[in-house]
Amino acid sequence: KRSICISTSGLRGCFDRNGHDHAGTAQKACGLQHRCRGKRKDHRAFLKAERMAVMTKIIDGKAISMQIKEEIKKEAASLKEQGKNVTLAVIQVGDNPASCVYVRNKKKGCEYIGIGSLSYELKEETTQEELLSLIRELNAREDVNGILVQLPLPAHIDEDTVIREIDPKKDVDGFHPQSVGALCIGQPGFVSCTPAGIIELLKRSGVSLEGKECVILGRSNIVGKPMALLMLRENATVTIAHSRTKNLAEVTKRADILIVAIGKPKMITREYVKEGAVVIDVGINRDQNNKLCGDVDFDDVAPLCSAITPVPGGVGPMTIAMLLNNCMESVRK
Ligand code: NDP
Q: Residue 330: what pLDDT?
């Protein structure tokens, strides 16, 4: 049967002559909205997009992070039986609302897997010296395995000085220069949780990394740079792009695996993505309707790629799972 479509919005939908939406499968697969009434040429393009959409794998970070937490929970229980207890100390200065949510989730994560957590909620006016002195005290405590200082800190405290004060053996965030240096030269050490979570997401989703062309968009110390080092460790060919990169779309279109961490809501559209690429969206932003969204325009990009992470429910849940994994790592050693 010949299909007919009358176009109002590009590739976003088509109906056959009986008004039947034969793109329903694609819609279910990637959450696209089908409003289009297209011309024949649009229709053919749509069918191509539809075939790809059906094949797009949505990487479920929530499910994979649960899998990891279950594994860690068992391990924590067996360590407990051997008399080895794990305790994470979480320090928060001030009451930044986003930090409160992150800290609460981290403590909940500890509770879920059955490890201890100590909570230090310090006043906004806490001096740098008071904070450093608490860190020294926790460094010295044998019953504390991991120390996490929630960032950002108030403006009068220097983050770099605080991170350097944490004993690298308890640096479960992986931000200490010694941890970063170890990663750089391929030695064991704590790895920053978000990039470590992305490697785990890719591996557990069956994406092979060796020899792949990987472009990382963003060069921050906590995401972009450690991500590049980890991908290199996995034998990918790595490019880091940033705000001064020329012809950005040309660079990102080379990627078999595109990792986006720029903090710009839905900036990455299909013009930046190679057909069949795996797209990992690290961004956590709010759109104009105050709805959570990533750095990637999911609806636009998903039909084009072979696999993609949604926001929320992609990279986010992995960060806490890897933090808990790092807490265990301090006891495994
Ligand atoms: P930063 O602001 O520290 O870094 C952003 C990077 O993106 C910089 O390297 C910057 O380039 C680059 N950039 C910004 N705008 C552009 C542009 N228009 N074109 C190309 N590159 C650009 O951000 P983070 O790395 O800390 O975070 C990135 C995003 O990831 C945020 O949305 C954040 O909320 C989220 N995030 C999510 C986590 C999770 O658990 N899912 C954890 C951590 C972060 P330049 O260096 O040249 O300025």
A: 80
User: Which string of DSSP letters, residue by residue, matches 107-165?
Assistant: HHHHHHHT-EEEEEEE-TT--HHHHHHHHHHHHH-TT--EEEEPSSPPTTS-HHHHHHH
Pocket test for ligand 1, best of 191, 192, 201, 243 (most atoms within 8 A of CB): 243
Coil vs helix vs strand at 104: helix
pLDDT of residue 31 exceeding 80: no
Please give the radius of gyration of the chain, using alpha carbons only, rounded to the nearest integer.
22
Catalytic site positions: 106, 150, 173
CA of 243 to the centre of ligand 1 (A): 10
Q: Which atom of ligand 1 is nearest to the CA of 217?
A: 21
DSSP label at residue 285: E
**CA pseudo-torsion sign 172, 173, 176, 179:** positive
Integer CA distances (angstroms), 66 to 53, 73, 113, 135, 202, in order: 26, 10, 10, 31, 15
Query: In angstroms, rounded to a whole number, what is the distance separating the alpha carbons of residues 160 and 289?
Result: 35
Q: CA–CA separation, 149 vs 238, rounded Å?
A: 30
| Stated pTM of the model | 0.86
Taking only the tens place, the pLDDT of each residue in 82-104 is 999 999 999 999 999 989 999 99
Give the SS3 label for residue 166: coil
